[in-house]
């Protein structure tokens, strides 16, 4: 039985703002980010990583005809790769944040809800991900990004009072209204996580982030942890993006003091 190790990071010394960087190639994400095998590993005590679809792995209401939750177990040949990806992702969080707020991580071949394939989703303290190594768009950076995307929803539900949502909404254009949610965005083919330079000036990283407030929040959280140098170039270039980044960093800092702008910027060099 393999154990996934958590690595504690030391906070970096304070760095000056990044100089304007040349644009780097964009990572492309294409879907929402919306039983137990003998070799199932666990990360420390109390958090399990599971690769097998189980009969009751989702909340009971998700099995209704309208939602139609379905999952396919991850092939054994991809499990070690998937473990490495998740190990990298969870190493970016202080241990107490994980232990208190995360119980299970499912990494599966596929997830389907509302007859739509999902890259990931979440419940109260569980994150569900997919890792389809055959699909060129389901890369290691994709899977890690989906983890941060979904775990940010878990944390937001528990700490929403620590987030200044009113100021966030005030950044959006006066006439703007979020869409009908992530599911509808997927159905309309608007779930790409690629940065959209037509939207940056008004405070959105991509079209998908306009589908719902929570998705807007999730996309920023995802990029704080795994967006790389290009994300910080965008933060330093576009005022409204910068303000939203500051608000979400403030939120994470209230959860754990190790989450600082300097810390998040340091992650860009560890991609």
C-alpha termini separation: 27 Å
Q: Give the neighbour order of strands across the main sheet.
A: 1-2-4-8-7
CATH-defined fold name: Collagenase (Catalytic Domain)
Helix content range: 25-40%
The CATH C-level class name:
Alpha Beta
Q: Biggest sheet: strands, sense, closure?
A: 5 strands, mixed
CA radius of gyration: 18 Å
Strand content: 5-15%
| Gross CATH architecture | 3-Layer(aba) Sandwich
Structurally, how many domains make up the residues? 1
Describe the structure.
The protein has 271 residues and is of the alpha/beta class. The protein has helices at 79-90, 95-101, 140-159, 165-171, 182-187, 213-226, 228-237, 239-255, 261-267, and strands at 42-43, 47-50, 70-72, 104-108, 110-113, 116-118, 120-122, 126-130. Strands 1-2-4-8-7 form a 5-stranded mixed beta sheet. A hairpin with a 3-residue loop joins strand 1 and strand 2 (47-50). Helix 1 crosses helix 3 (140-159), helix 6 (213-226) packs across helix 8 and helix 7 (228-237) crosses helix 8. The longest helix is centred in the middle third of the chain and has 20 residues, at 140-159. It starts with 41 loop residues before the first strand and ends with a helix.
């Amino acid at each position: 039985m393999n154990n996934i190790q958590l690595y504690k990071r030391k906070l970096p010394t304070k760095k000056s703002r990044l100089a304007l960087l040349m644009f780097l190639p964009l990572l492309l994400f294409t879907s929402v980010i919306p039983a137990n095998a003998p070799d199932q590993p666990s990360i420390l005590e109390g958090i399990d990583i599971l690769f097998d679809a189980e009969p009751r792995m989702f909340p009971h209401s998700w099995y209704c005809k309208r939602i139609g939750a379905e999952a396919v177990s991850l092939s054994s040949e991809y499990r070690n790769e998937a473990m490495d990806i998740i190990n990298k992702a969870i190493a970016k969080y202080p241990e107490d944040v994980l232990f208190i707020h995360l119980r299970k991580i499912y990494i599966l071949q596929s997830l389907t809800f509302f007859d739509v394939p999902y890259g990931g989703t979440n419940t109260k303290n569980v994150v569900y991900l997919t890792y389809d190594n055959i699909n060129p768009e389901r890369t290691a950076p994709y899977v890690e990004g989906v983890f941060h995307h979904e775990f940010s929803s878990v944390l937001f539900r528990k700490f929403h009072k620590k987030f200044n949502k009113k100021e966030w909404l005030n950044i959006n254009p006066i006439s703007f209204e979020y869409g009908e949610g992530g599911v509808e965005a997927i159905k309309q083919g608007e779930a790409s996580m690629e940065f959209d330079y037509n939207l940056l000036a008004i405070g959105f990283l991509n079209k998908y982030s306009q589908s719902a407030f929570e998705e807007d929040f999730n996309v920023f959280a995802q990029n704080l942890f795994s967006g790389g140098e290009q994300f910080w170039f965008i933060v330093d270039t576009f005022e409204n993006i910068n303000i939203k980044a500051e608000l979400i960093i403030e939120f994470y800092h209230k959860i754990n003091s190790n989450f600082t702008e300097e810390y998040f910027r340091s992650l860009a060099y560890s991609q």
